[in-house]
Amino acid sequence: MSDRAQPAVRGGTAAAVLLVVALSLVVTTLSLLQSLVVPVLDRIAEQLDVSPSAAGWVLTANLLAATVLTPVLGRLGDLKGERPVILGILGTVAAGTVLAITTESLPLLLLARVLQGASYGLFPLSISVLRRELPERRLGVAMSVVSSTLGVGGVAGLVATGLLAGDDADYRRPFWIGLAITVVAFGLCLRLLPRRSATSSGGVDWLGAAVLGLGLSLLLLFVSQGNSWGWSSPAALGCLAGSVAVLSAWMVQQRRSAEPLIRPAMLADRRTIIPNVVGLLAGVAMFASFLAVLQYVQSPPEVTGYGFGASVLVATVVYLLPGGVVGIVLAPFAGSVVTRFGGLPTLVVGWTFGLAGFALLTWVRSEPWAVIGAGLLTQVAVTITYAALPSLIVQAVHEDETGVANAVNSIARSVGQALGSALTVTLIAAHLDPGSGLPRNIAFTLVGAIGIGVSVAILAAALLGLAGDRRATRSRQQDPTGEVEEATAGAGEWSTVSGVR
User: Fold this and answer.
1) What is the structure's pLDDT at 153?
2) Which of 5, 98, 108, 318 has the most beta carbons within 10 angstroms of its beta carbon?
3) pLDDT tens figures, 202-218
4) Is-contact 22 188, C-beta < 8 A?
């Protein structure tokens, strides 16, 4: 039986399209602001007169804020309604972006990035809006289009930086694009987001949110700062051990809470475990591909013996933008495939492309066409993944948990992106040539091998999910009374219809 409320969008196809456009721009705000600082970290260090490791906190502060805020914002959307929470987030992000543009201080820039970290809550809330407001026949494609902007917006952020911050220009210039998109998104949401009552009752488990935020922050500190601190340093190992202890205590606290922030049973359900694992691994793959391609194509061949000596602009427009364009075109088709065949078979197809992309990056990268192809294929895999994950999550949880369930998946992707960045940076730093100070070619082979391993792991997870579906189907066929299904609800199969448990 469906647990969805009656869709409220009026005006037929035109109204639905406008809503999807508005939410796509909302999610673009998140992915754009996340990625546009990646190519200019060295510029930030130079222009603010700080060390490269200090400038690295511009990324870390944003991710830390995201891990703390995302589950709370997802829960608030379920409790208060998505419209006021989305508008509040966009206002906060706009204020943070103005601060990033105007400040000349690293501490204030970090504060700006913390405010921008609230944007990570926009994706799960957007999926909640779609689930509530669109009919079944439109939901799969709509979620795919909105979700695809996570990957496409990331490429757009890199391209925007290449266009506006080339030739040693001010690193602040790309933030103007982020501000413009945020303001436009706010205006569209103010006009188009329907006013609806909340889907859930109760309150926010603030203690659980604080403990979860602390545990995830310690984990992200280990992942993002381990290379600069030293992976075996007391600070890094202390963060890792502290994260394990705090997150374990959080699980105990959630089991005892009358109104947990996240139901432990939901976290233990195979139907949410697999999308969260895939989200984490896809985050690793996406940032490993981005960073490896950018570093490789900008390397001067006369010094390193590899690379193409590309500028930041050429690196982003020629080598990354094709994948972003293909992602935009592919998203509606991917949503239709997910709706017809299911998320897990779609993941298998997607990461066959991803495996081929990383194989090109590992063994055939000496030619420009091969690097372009690698970036395109991995972007296709990420686009397909982002099309499938919301559908899998929506099918696994009740409507009143849509926001917080997708928030958990967003956190998994964020941790994966941080891990992908850390692994890539660590491998490159471990294989620097003493004479030139640039990475040896073997570093990119190792990054490609990690991508191959991640692709295989995602394929294995999807196939395990399909095997679990077959077992659940056989159980129901053997027990038509439904008693087995009721007793093993946490191991049930995904429905092929979005929103049905």
Assistant:
1) 81
2) 318
3) 778 889 999 999 999 99
4) yes
Q: Tell me, what's the pLDDT at 480?
A: 57
**DSSP 3-state percent helix, strand, coil across the chain (nearest 5):** 80, 0, 20
Q: Retrieve residue 490's tokens.
A: 């946490």
Please say whether the beta carbons of 115 and 351 come within 8 A.
no
What superfamily would CATH give domain 12-204+261-491? MFS general substrate transporter like domains (1.20.1250.20)
Is the distance from CB of 50 to CB of 56 less than 8 angstroms?
no
Paired strand residues for 500: 2
Contact 358, 289 (CB under 8 A): yes
Q: Are 100 and 61 in contact (CB under 8 A)?
A: no
pLDDT, tens digit, for every residue of 480-492? 555 444 444 444 5
Would you give the DSSP letter of residue 399? Answer: G
Q: Give the DSSP per-residue string, 402-417.
A: HHHHHHHHHHHHHHHH
How do residues 249-279 score in pLDDT, each as one tens digit?
A: 999 999 998 888 888 888 889 899 999 999 9
Between residues 6 and 423, the one the model is more confident about: 423
What letter would DSSP give residue 496?
S
pLDDT tier at 402, thresholds 50, 70, 90: confident
Give the model's pLDDT for residue 481: 56
Beta-ladder partners of 107: none
Three-state DSSP at 307 gives: coil
Q: How many CB atoms neighbour CB 256 within 10 A?
A: 10
Decide: helix, strand or coil at residue 309.
coil
pTM for the structure as a whole:
0.85
Give yes or no for a contact between 88 and 35, defined as CB atoms under 8 angstroms apart: no
Q: What is the pLDDT of residue 180?
A: 94
- The C-alpha atoms of residue 303 and residue 436 are separated, in whole angstroms, by 7
Look up residue 437 and give its DSSP letter.
S
Which range (97-111, 115-129, 196-210) has the least confidence?
A: 196-210
CA–CA gap between residue 149 and residue 156 (Å, rounded) = 9
| Residue 116 dihedral angles phi and psi, to the nearest 5° | -65, -25
The 3-state DSSP class for residue 365 equals coil
CA angle 349, 353, 355 (to 5 degrees): 110
